C-alpha cells in the first residue's frame, strides 16, 4: 500500500494519526473502521494493541510496593519491612485476580486475541475470505459494544507503542523468517508449542510467529505474553505446567535486545512455571553481530539485521515501484548514492537515491524507515503540519517515508541566539497544527517527561524518595507540568537535530522522537523549547530561549532536567548543564544586591557547604542561595574556595554576581570583576602535574578531566564517575621518584585529585584577598569561612569567624573549628545567621518577595538536601504542606 502526500493534503482512505497514543475505547473504534475497509495491517496492529492493553491490565502487579521493597532491600533495610511490602503486593495481586471485573476483562481479552490471531494469519497468508472478513467485522463490533461491561480504568488505559514496528524497521516477514528457522530446527510439528511474547513488542511479534508456525504445519500452537518482572498469572502458570507434562516447547520472542535482560527475565519466569531450559528457544532479531552474553544459557535462533526484510525495500527496483505513483510520473532509473548510506544501530535505516523520471528530471530522494502501517504513516501527519520547515515529503510505503534530499545540508554544531526565532517558528506551527489531549499526565510508571523529572528530584530525599514518590513528589511535579494547550511535541530539538541548507534551518526528521522507544512522553511545547539547549552555557542563548516562549520558570527547569537526566551518570558536561539550569532558576528566585565595591570576604567551600550532589549533579539548595544573598545584601562579598575547576568557579561568579573565587584547591585565584587570573602553582610543580596528567591519560580505564588545568582530576571510566583505586594512584606516583613529594592526593568518592603540595586553599584565599583588597598592600578582610573537609583547614584558619556544618569531617572537629549542629546548607545558613545576628531573609534588607505557589512547591523539592539525611523528615513535611497549599489554591495550567 502506498500513501501519497498530494498538494491538497493527505489522502483520507488511510489511517493517518498525529497522536499515536490511544485509549482502549479509541482503539476499538478504529478497529471497526479499519476492518470495514479491509485494512488488514492496521487492523492487526490495532487488535494487537487492544490485547496488549487488556493483558497489561490483567497481569499488572502491585509494582509500587515491590519497587519500594527492592529499593529498601538494596539499602540494607530490615527484612521484616521489605517482606511486609512483598506480602502486601502479592495479596493485592491475588485479590485482583478473583473478582468479576477481572473475569469480564479476561473474556474480552480472549475475544480480542481471536481477532488479532486471525488477522495475523491473514496478513501472512495474503488475505482472508470474504466470509472470514465479515466474521471479524462482527467480532470487532461486539468488542466495541463489550467495552461497556469493562472497568473504566481498563477502557481508559493508554496504548504502549511497540518499538519493533515503530522505532525499529522490523517487518512481519521477519517473523516468518525466524519461525522458519525454528521449524527447520524442530521437525516435530505435533509437539505442543507456546509462543511467549515479551510485552510490549511481543504482543505484536508473538502472534505473527504463531501464525507463521501454523502456516508451517505446527498444529498445536498457543500464544501468551509476559512483561519482565511481572509475575505470571494463575492461568499462565497452569498452561505452562500442562505444557511441561505434555512434553511441549516454549518459544520466546522480543524486539532486538540491548543487554538481553528482558528476554532473559521472561525466560526465567517461564522456567519458574515448569518448562526446563532445554524446552525453551529464544528467537532473537539482532542489530549487532551476535546475541548478548546474558542469553548464552539458552538456545537462540537469530536474525541479523542484514537479513531483515526491510533491506529488500531499499532495492532500486522496489524504490522505483513506489515512487512512480508518489511523484505522478514514471520513474525510469534509480541509483543508490553513497551519502549517507543506511544507518545501522538501534534505530531506523536510511538511504539516498538519485531518481530519474520520464519527464527528464532528476531528483535526490531519501528513503528512511518510519514504522509500519499507521505507526509509520504518522510521518505524513507531521509532514503536513510542518511542511514549511522540512524537506518535501513525497509519500510513505511499506514502512518507509520518502523525502527530498538536500546534499548541502549540514548539521548544526551549536544553536546560536540568532537561530532561536526560526526554531520557535517551527514549534509554533507544529503546536498549532497538532493539538492533542495531554495523555502524559496519566502515564505514571511509563516514564513521561514529568515522571523523569520527578524521579530525579526524588533522589534528593535519599532512601525516602521512592516511598514519597506516589503521594508527594509525583503529584507535585505532575501539577507543575500541567499545560493548558497540549500538542504533539517533536521531542528532539537540540543542535544536532537541525540542519542548515542554503542558510535556512530545517528539521530533517520531525516525526521520529515524539513516540519513540525512549519514552519521555510529553504534550507540552515548552518541553521542545527547553530541549534546544538545556542548561545552556551561553547566557545570551539561555536568555533568548526564556524570552522566546513565555512560560513559568518551574516548568522550563523541570523539562531541562528531564532532557539531561539520562546523561547525568556518564557525561560531565550534562552534569554541569543541569547545575547551571538549577542555578539560573534559583538566581531568578533570589535576586542579589548590586555588587559591593568593597566589603569583607566570606570564604565558602562549595561541595558539602554551598552545594549538594544528591541529585547526581551539584546544585546549591534554595537555603544556601538565600544565605548567600543575605551576605550580599548586608555588604559582604561571598567567594567560593573550592577544589572545582576554574571554569566552574567562573560560572558561579557569573551566576551569583560574586567578586571572585579560588579554584582547584588553591592553585589559581580569580578576580571576576577584572577578569584576572593568578596562577599559584610553581612552574616546576606544574611540570610534575603535566607528567602525571599524561601518564593517567595513557592508563586504561582512566579518564582525565581536561577542564582542570592547575591540578589533575581523574575518574574511572564506565558508569557513574568513581575515584581511582589507591593502588593505581600509588603506582603512577611511584614513577615520579623524588618528585613524588611535590604533589599530594585528595581522594574523593567520585574522583581523585592530585594537586601541587605547595598550594592549598589558605594560600589561594590569601592571594584572592590581595587581589580584591583596596590597595596592593592592603588585602581584603576575611570575616567568615565555612568548610567541611580537611582541605578546608588552611582556609578556615585565615578568617575572623570559622565554622563547619554538622557533616564536617573528623579532621575539622579535631582542629578546634566550631562545628554547628545542622548539616550542609542548613549549617551554612546557621553560620551566616551568627555573622548577621539574624537568620537569612528575616530582615527588611535581605527579605525577598514572597514566591508564587508554583515556586514554593519547586523550592521545597529542590531544598530536600539542605540539612542532609537528618533533615529529610522535615523536608518531607514541608513538601506535604506546600502540596496541600497548592491543592487548596490550584496552580493554573500554563499555556
Automatic annotation (TrEMBL):
It comes from the Bacteria. InterPro entries: HAD-like_sf (IPR036412), HAD_sf (IPR023214), PRTase-like (IPR029057). PANTHER family: HAD SUPERFAMILY HYDROLASE-LIKE, TYPE 3, PHOSPHOSERINE PHOSPHATASE. It comes from Pseudonocardia asaccharolytica DSM 44247 = NBRC 16224. Coiled coil: none annotated. This is Uncharacterized protein. It holds the Pfam family Hydrolase_3. One of its GO terms (cellular component) is cytosol. GO terms for molecular function: magnesium ion binding; phosphatase activity.
